[in-house]
Specification:
heterodimer, A: 178 residues, alpha/beta, five-stranded parallel sheet, B: 437 residues, alpha+beta, five-stranded mixed sheet, four-stranded mixed sheet, 17 helices, 14% strand
Chain lengths: 178, 437
């Protein structure tokens, strides 16, 4: 390379945007920020506001009615596997939601859910913040918007209404009662 | 949750250094102790796995179980008592210091910021010019990508840098920004690959190839957009070989990610373009990303004695059918045959036919690793049809593509031959390119 050409190149390189994927900008916190970036609108800071308002909710009463009518519904518990094993809505399957990982890692499991039934995600959380993101991901996978919903009030509401539960903790309580 | 029970991690040798590295170490509240065993575990004879346990810890070189006991019982070191904010990691500057082109190329290669083909070095001037291709602000965060032990923000400027590196022009930037919403691309421990389908009038405007050699190295827009996905995925997704990218064989499709346009003009009457099937308007410009593992190209022309969709069905039976996913790319001549000779009036009818007619031996279905990790838990938890399939004999035939909506049909090619290409790629909902102009 001639010295003239090298000099020109050096000038150009002075402004090479470097890497850019580094931690030059401090990593954002995990949790809500990460969730928001993956799944559209951020989770609300205001507790009165419902996070992920675009996600349709279904009440526990409605779900119970569909279950009783032997309707086509699949319930999905989004807590971790230990919590699921301990207590879950009777008949529910488990797909754990982890806000610190790429939601698409759950795609092989999510896409195994039926496309011709109502799929209801629920969490053990106040405002569906750990179930609504999975509803959004189901939409990304092409599931019909009206066939995938989040259970309003989650497991807590289901328990309050005394609807059927299953799991090791439930079994233990039942044994004590007996 | 604090259980006050001593615990350690056991990691395979290919990932343990990542687990003990900065990000992972300081994102768990405190450094976690690890011991390490060889890899892989799955599919190995029991004797091999037993040998791992009776062998040596790959980190310390000591007998594995002795290392486990030591890790569980020895007092915490000073480093392990660190609490509060971890020490700052060494950061890269936004701008690199001036250097020769040769040295900078070497630096990019050494850092694995490239696909090891030549890149256009992203000078500030070039990146500024690239950013003229969008109205979005350079510091706008497109998404935050969670990586092992941390997260990274993917900004418009960072995408523009990758676009420059890939050889794109400013007019490609809206497409690449839309593609950035899907970064990083699918990657696993096996040979995962990806597909980028361009739909709408932008195919003509940017001259994407939808015809002859649509999926080959014969077109600039197909080439630079597909390559940009790789570069974004590697840099933003922190994919580095044997650091946190562990595809045993890898996949040469990851160089370009099968980027092509649908030949919408050659669709038979009644067959909608991919994006229209997803609910977009025909005039919308959309890109759709698929990912999967397996693909089979047809060999030779279609034959009258055995209908084309029968042969596609036979090939599809070798796919794992995870999530019922399949994407079938067919030449317009085949699309014409399927419609005019075999009566499939829409793509959806063809998808439905595959869902009803692709069969697979039960043992073969359950013998797949992805199915083991996804469908087995469902079966054990009672979800149908998996629970019933688990009870069937090995040689029973099942219909594993239960969801026809997950079977996509895309028409591309130059009508040179009655060819097709079947894959197990699952296509996600499309992204509107126009939003990123």
């Amino acid at each position: 390379m001639s010295s003239t050409r090298k000099a020109a190149l050096l000038c150009a390189m002075l402004l090479v945007p470097g890497v850019l994927w580094s931690h030059a900008q401090k990593d954002p916190p995990k949790g809500d920020a990460a969730k928001a970036s993956q799944s559209g609108p951020p989770a609300a800071n205001d507790k009165d506001k419902e996070p992920f308002p675009q996600v349709p909710r279904i009440t526990a009463e409605e779900v119970q009615r569909v279950v009783k009518d032997k309707g086509n519904v699949v319930l999905v518990d989004t807590d971790d596997s230990e919590s699921y094993a301990s207590e879950h809505i009777k008949g529910a399957v488990n797909i754990a939601y982890d806000p610190t990982t790429d939601l698409r890692e759950q795609d092989p499991s999510l896409s195994g859910l039926p496309g011709d039934k109502l799929v209801v995600f629920y969490c053990n959380c106040a405002h569906e913040e750990d179930s609504a993101p999975l509803v959004l991901e189901m939409w990304e996978l092409g599931y019909d918007h009206d066939k995938v919903k989040a259970l309003r009030g989650g497991l807590t509401r289901w328990e309050q209404l005394g609807y059927p539960l299953a799991g090791t903790e439930v079994d233990a309580t039942r044994e004590k009662g007996n | 949750m604090q259980c006050k029970i001593p615990a350690i991690g056991i990691a395979s040798s290919n990932i343990v250094h990542y687990a003990t590295g900065y990000n992972f170490k300081y994102n768990n509240g405190m450094p976690i102790r690890y011991v390490s065993v060889p890899f892989p575990f799955t599919g190995q004879p029991r004797s091999v796995d037993v040998g791992y346990v009776s062998g040596k810890d790959m980190l310390s070189g000591r007998p594995l179980m002795a290392a486990v006991v030591d890790a569980l019982t020895s007092p915490l070191t000073m480093e392990e008592k660190i609490s509060g904010a971890p020490p700052d990691e060494e950061v890269e500057p936004r701008l690199l210091p001036a250097d020769s082109e040769e040295n900078l190329r070497r630096l990019f290669d050494d850092k694995e910021w490239t696909d090891f083909n030549s890149i256009i070095l992203p000078t500030e001037k070039r990146v500024t010019a690239m950013l003229k291709g969008t109205s979005r602000k350079p510091d706008e965060v497109i998404k935050t990508i969670n990586i092992t032990g941390g997260a990274r923000q993917l900004t418009v400027e960072k995408v523009a840098i990758n676009a420059v590196m890939a050889g794109a022009s400013p007019e490609h930037l809206p497409v690449i920004l839309a593609l950035a919403t899907q970064a990083p691309f699918g990657n696993s421990t096996s040979s995962m690959a990806n597909m980028v389908v361009i739909s709408g009038p932008i195919r003509d405007k940017l001259k994407f190839n939808c015809g002859t050699n649509a999926m080959g190295p014969y077109n600039r827009s197909n080439a630079v957009v597909g390559r940009a996905f790789t570069l974004m995925s590697k840099t933003a997704g922190d994919l580095r070989n044997n650091v946190n990218a562990w595809e045993t064989l890898g996949n040469t499709m990851q160089y370009n990610n099968i980027c092509y346009g649908e030949n919408e003009e050659a669709l038979p009457d009644g067959w909608d373009p991919l994006h229209v099937e997803m609910g977009f308007k025909p005039t919308d410009n959309v890109l759709s990303v698929g990912m999967g593992w397996s693909s089979i190209a047809s060999v030779g022309a279609s034959q009258v004695i055995y209908p084309t969709h029968f042969l596609m069905r036979d090939y599809m039976s070798s796919f794992c059918a995870s999530g019922s996913a399949a994407t079938i790319v067919i030449d317009p001549t085949v699309a014409g045959l399927l419609k005019d000779v075999h009566g499939f009036k829409t793509k959806a009818q063809l998808s439905e036919w595959f869902s009803q007619n692709v069969t697979k031996m039960n043992a073969s279905y359950w013998g797949n690793g992805v199915i083991q990790s996804t469908a087995v838990p469902f079966a054990l938890q009672g979800l149908e049809p998996y629970a019933s399939w688990r009870k069937l004999p090995d040689d029973a035939l099942i219909k594993p593509f239960t969801n026809p909506k997950a079977i996509h049909v895309v028409v591309a090619g130059g009508k040179v031959q009655t060819m097709w290409f079947v894959t197990d790629f699952g296509i996600r909902r499309g992204v509107l390119i126009d939003d990123w102009a």
